[in-house]
């Protein structure tokens, strides 16, 4: 990928702001500020054309591009690109997480339950599209459902490959299990 200098600068500016919010302490208000800062970044739509982040259908339908990550594995920003469909079961993140829409739609369900409890119960269903986003604290549980393709920012307090195994609800056995992110992530940093 040829470096897009404006994109590199816009990402660096956003991550500088998000780093400061994170450093002041993470709570519901802080992740809301991070969500708003990512919405501002997403307004620069011409810097994030879908054609620069094509989805690879050979995996689970979803392709992750790494846009920024700190040297200590903290503060990771990705673009998730989905050609058609992808699903993620109810899971937590063990760190804060924000999703902000660029193209298409991603349905997010929030759950009342925390991992390790009983079966997760949906508390809220939110469709992420352009100009919308959602923020989670480390223990919050959500699931993802995409149909018809989507391009979104996914931002986490810690890089996904370095996170310990996260908790997810395994519907077929009706219990909480753990999963490690294993699929390759494309490093799209300049
Ligand atoms: Fe997630």
Walk me through this protein's architecture:
By secondary structure, the chain is of the alpha+beta class. It has a single domain, classed as Jelly Rolls. It contains 2 helices and 10 strands, in the order ααββββββββββ. The chain has helices at residues 5-23, 28-42; strands at residues 62-68, 74-82, 86-91, 97-111, 122-128, 133-136, 141-158, 166-170, 175-179, 186-187. Strands 1, 2, 3, 4, 5, 6, 7 and 10 form an 8-stranded mixed sheet that branches. Strands 8-9 form a two-stranded antiparallel ribbon. The structure holds fe (ii) ion (FE2). Fe (ii) ion binds next to β3.
Fill in the keyword field for this structure.
about 190 residues; 2 helices; single chain; binds fe (ii) ion; alpha+beta; 10 strands; Jelly Rolls; 8-stranded mixed beta sheet
Mean pLDDT: 94
Bound molecules: fe (ii) ion
Which consecutive residue ranges, at least 5 long each, have pLDDT under 50? none
* CATH architecture group name: Sandwich
Question: Largest sheet, if any?
Answer: 8 strands, mixed
User: What is the first-to-last residue Cα distance?
Assistant: 8 Å
Briefly note the CATH topology name: Jelly Rolls
Q: Which secondary-structure class do the elements indicate?
A: alpha+beta
